[in-house]
Amino acid sequence: MFAVIVTAALAAAPAPEGRAQESEHFFQRAQSAYRLRRYDTALEHLLEVYDRSPTPEVRLGVARTAAQARFRELAHAFYRELLEHPQYRAEARSALARLRPRLALVELSSEPPGAEVFVDDRQLGSYGRTPLVLAVSPGRRRIILDADNHHRVSFEVRARKGARVRAARSLSARQGRLRIEVTPSGADIRLERGEARTTTVAAGGEARLAAGTYTARVEAEGYVPEELEVRVRPGALEVRRVTLVPTREAGARVLVSTGGLRAPVRVDGVHRGRAPLVLSLAPGEHEVQVGEGYRRDLMLLAGKSYVLTPEPEEVRPRGPSFD
Predict the structure, then answer these.
(1) Which residue among 101, 204, 289, 296 has the highest number of C-beta atoms inside a 10 angstrom radius?
(2) pTM score, two decimals?
């Protein structure tokens, strides 16, 4: 049954050629070890298959093999995920009922939430993300929490059969440095990152920040604001240079899109080309005509972008071309 389940999984979810060959290689080694009842070795190879082909069928093979190898907590985690798949739900429920009396519960939370959870050894694979309730074998267990751009946390819990242990940990953010050099000097720089509060930094100065991706908005009176994405890497200095455009010199951009219809475009009575077309225009009031039936008066602001999308029937030519 082991071979049937996993062979079907590899056939149903083909990977790119190189990955497929790797999956087949590890599957053959897992199958050989399983036949020899070397379940721990079979599990190691099957986890390599799962890394390349994470299908429900391979997950079932991992769950069964983990149970045979007495990695009951790993088997519990994989069987629990199989509850979402109707074809394996009955077996998963039965297996979980057999496993639970031999396991203890560990309730984990972290700040920030979403840390990946490992038990005893990272090579055994992730058990999910916090907040999470784990079923583990009783005894002293090492819990590992890992989150992007944060320092890894490792700690020990004493899990007891039939009891629930609660553990909460904070992961400190890895930091990097950022310097944004701006012309003109004296500009204001604000950094935003997801739902986190806005951070203000000094132009030209270095700021120590939690690693991650930020949106920087650079503003100065009399200049067109600019936004840019910056990535702060752990232990590194990121330097960006920004030159703001004076408001009086900045133009406006107008995109004219007609759904593929090559309609002529006039601005203030002057032919500028055929749509689709991007126009660079001076700030102020302009009349834009597309085809013969579409006209719009626009008040354009410096540094702004505008989009015009007339319907085809509005622009379809009914007379001589403007060309």
Answers:
(1) 289
(2) 0.48
